[in-house]
């Protein structure tokens, strides 16, 4: 007997499941798959669109009850029979809230409730998600990419906790997928020049809040046949979403097109074959996934190897990185060479004390510049190039026959010797310090 595919969608708030994956959910249900949607919070901090419901804003318990009803209606529109809230009756995680940062992306709110999702330990959140994975035994798990779509801290937390949970769970899912949006699709989504947009009354976007893709997008799920179901589910979230024709808007009133594909990258598990990808992204989230093989797990699978991570190799620094390093090094080298001989002399109980503050400032300037290059490009190479340029420039400035009078700037004093070797010594130390790409704010 054929195995019925089981797919678990993990989202942060009611309406996220529909906005980002509603078409995929409806398509899978239509194919006979068993779909489970897990919401981490009840969206207690959401803004409210309808004027007659504005009183719910700030009433966290009241808004939670309304959004529970809304997501139930949305699930019915998408055909989902199994919707869960993270923690069940044992624990409630609340909406952490967010603020808009200066770059147009979401950042963590300045305050949040004690039981907010982002206030909880990551291990606690991941254990609850792992419990759901062991209960549902999904063949595929789908959640946000590391950027949270547009940076919402709850989205980022759900991504992190789900990644941890698929390894923590006894059940081994065959594939972990991340929702991601190609740059050209993001532009299409917010394009106010599309036919029908003017009739919606929505505002055009001044900037596109969607963050660039985190990983290679290998799946483009065609949802054109279920757009009606997705539109109905969006309309069910009436406190959060306004729908007009083929467009929708959130509380900011900015119009977005309901596009006919939803896109995914693979975070772990069975990849899409290279042969299939030659013709473009795969058409389905279960493409090349052996459901029967996933199903053959036994209780001995507890402690089995975690899903193989599909890590992208760090992008190697390019021409700009090294050009940046050289320009910065020239500035540091010149300023340091000019400054490093400055001292202050004090008489302390008859003893002469020399305070070489110029050298200290020069080496501090070099250390800050080198660390900046290391963390910006996540590589030691531009930093080492910069340190070499600083040393060479300082040496050149100390040669009277090359640049007459330059030896006044860098002389043979102990301070000059420290300046000549200091940047390379600092770079050698920093080269052994590991840095990681920063994650979105929580």
From TrEMBL:
Pfam families: PIG-L. The chain crosses the membrane at residues 319-337, 349-370, 377-397, 417-435. This is GlcNAc-PI de-N-acetylase. One of its GO terms (molecular function) is hydrolase activity, acting on carbon-nitrogen (but not peptide) bonds, in linear amides. Keywords: Membrane, Transmembrane, Transmembrane helix, Zinc. SUPFAM superfamilies: LmbE-like. The keyword Transmembrane helix applies. It comes from the Bacteria. GO terms for biological process: glycoside metabolic process.
């Amino acid at each position: 007997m054929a195995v019925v595919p089981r797919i678990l969608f993990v989202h942060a708030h009611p309406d996220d499941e529909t906005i980002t994956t509603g078409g995929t959910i409806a398509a899978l249900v239509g194919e006979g798959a068993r779909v489970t949607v897990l919401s981490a919070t009840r969206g207690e901090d959401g803004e409210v669109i309808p004027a007659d419901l504005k009183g719910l804003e700030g009433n966290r318990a009241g808004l939670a009850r309304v959004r529970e009803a809304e997501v139930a209606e949305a699930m019915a529109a998408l055909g989902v029979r199994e919707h869960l809230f993270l923690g069940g009756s044992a624990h409630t995680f609340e909406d952490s809230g967010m603020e808009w940062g200066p770059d147009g992306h979401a950042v963590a709110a300045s305050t949040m409730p004690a039981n907010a999702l982002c206030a909880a330990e990551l291990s606690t959140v991941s254990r609850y998600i792992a419990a759901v994975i062991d209960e549902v035994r999904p063949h595929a798990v789908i959640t946000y990419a590391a950027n949270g779509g547009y940076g919402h801290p709850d989205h980022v937390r759900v991504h992190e906790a789900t990644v941890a949970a698929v390894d923590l769970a006894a059940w081994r899912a065959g594939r972990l997928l991340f929702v991601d949006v190609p740059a050209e699709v993001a532009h299409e989504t917010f394009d106010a020049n599309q036919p029908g947009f003017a009739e919606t009354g929505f505002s055009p976007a001044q900037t596109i809040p969607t963050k660039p893709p985190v990983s290679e997008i290998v799946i483009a799920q065609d949802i054109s046949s279920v757009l009606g179901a997705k539109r109905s589910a969006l309309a069910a979230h009436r406190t959060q979403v306004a729908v007009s024709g083929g467009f929708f808007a959130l509380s900011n009133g900015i119009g977005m097109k309901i596009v006919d594909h939803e896109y995914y990258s693979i975070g772990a598990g069975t990849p899409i074959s290279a042969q299939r990808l030659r013709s473009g992204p795969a058409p389905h989230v279960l493409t090349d996934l052996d459901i029967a093989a996933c199903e053959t797990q036994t209780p001995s699978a507890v402690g089995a190897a975690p899903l193989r991570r599909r890590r992208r190799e760090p992008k190697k620094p390019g021409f700009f990185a090294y050009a940046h390093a050289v320009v910065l090094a020239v500035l540091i080298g010149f300023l340091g060479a000019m400054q490093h001989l400055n001292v202050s002399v004090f008489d302390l109980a008859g003893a002469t004390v020399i305070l070489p503050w110029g050298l200290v400032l020069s080496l501090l300037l070099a250390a800050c510049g080198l660390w900046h290059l290391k963390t910006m490009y996540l590589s030691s190479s531009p930093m080492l190039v910069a340190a070499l340029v600083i040393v060479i420039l300082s040496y050149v400035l100390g040669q009277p026959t090359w640049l007459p009078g330059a030896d006044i700037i860098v002389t043979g004093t102990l301070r000059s010797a420290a300046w000549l070797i200091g940047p390379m010594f600092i770079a050698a130390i920093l080269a052994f310090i590991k840095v990681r790409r920063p994650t979105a704010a929580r």
